[in-house]
Every structure is written in C-alpha cells, then in structure tokens.
Amino acid sequence: MPATHDRLMRPLALFPALIGTADWPCLAPAVQRMHDDTPLLHARGIAKVEGANHWPARMLRRLLGLPEPGDDQPLALTIERDGPREIWTRHFEHGRMRSTLERTADGASLREQLGPIALYFTLHRDGEAIDWQLRQGRFLGLPVPRALLGQVLSRSTAEQGRYVFHIDTRLPLLGQLIAYRGWLEITDER
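The structure corresponding to this sequence follows.
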C-alpha cells in the first residue's frame, strides 16, 4: 500500500486535531512543521528567559522544572511523538524543562503535564499563529482554582520563516513566574 495512503488512514496528530482541518492549512508553514506528526524532531534556537528573582518564584520554578532567567540562552528542543502524545524536552542554558502533551479525554483541549502540575489549554488559530488559552489546572491531580493560575500568555507563530514562541506566566502574589520567548529552527526530523 502506498505511503500516502497509510498517512491518510492515520488519525490526525495532536496539534492538527486540536486546531481543526479547516484552520490548520492557514497556519504559517514553520508553525505547521513544528507541530505536525514527525515522530522525532530536533530544533535549535535562542530564548530570552525572564522571571521574578525572589525566593518563592525561584523555588516554584525548581519544583516545576522551569529554567532560570537569562538573556540569549541557547535552546535545544526535542519532540518525541507517539501517536497523539508528545514529549517536549527543552534544554536551556540555565535549565532543562520537560513536559508531556496530549488531548483531554473529551478531545477538545490540550493537557500539558509539567512536573506535578497539569495545565489545560484550548488552542485557536489567530491569523497564522496558534493562541494557547489556559482554561484550568491541577496540582498533584487536585483542581487548582482558576484565579490561582494567574495569567498565561502562550503563542506560537513565525517570523522570517522561523518558528517563534512567546510564553508569559504571572501568578497572584508572586508576579512573573516565568516568561520565555525566542525562535527555533528544525535541525533534524525522522
């Protein structure tokens, strides 16, 4: 059977399924390529990481496996895909961040497991970009009141043919837990 037929018979990958078949082709090519169905993807780039410098923010970043602040940090990303489940490992100059992404049981949202916390997002196309909207969270399986999750801005887009990301998380009382933005270019796909 031809490979194209096999590809047509497979279920949609995580991001195309959540964005939807009508909106997926409207995304920037760099965004589509980063979030497609390649089983193993490696990318490299640069990220600026910011965050509050007080000890509660530093401790929470350590607990969640988030990187420490620093300008122009080299960033290496590996995405391992197994069907609708993806493992993202980000190697920053000042830390390693690993999360598992998958669809929720109802298929409508993205669940990102980051250490002891699970974050639930709806994904929407905004022009050629993906806008991630935080809906809820769980800590060690227990629901976290939405007000305690603060504000999360997360956007995936493209500039000059590169995949560009911007994430900014601000919590009540703590302020900016982490913000990281930068770009990535795919170096290997298998």
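The chain has a mean pLDDT of 93.
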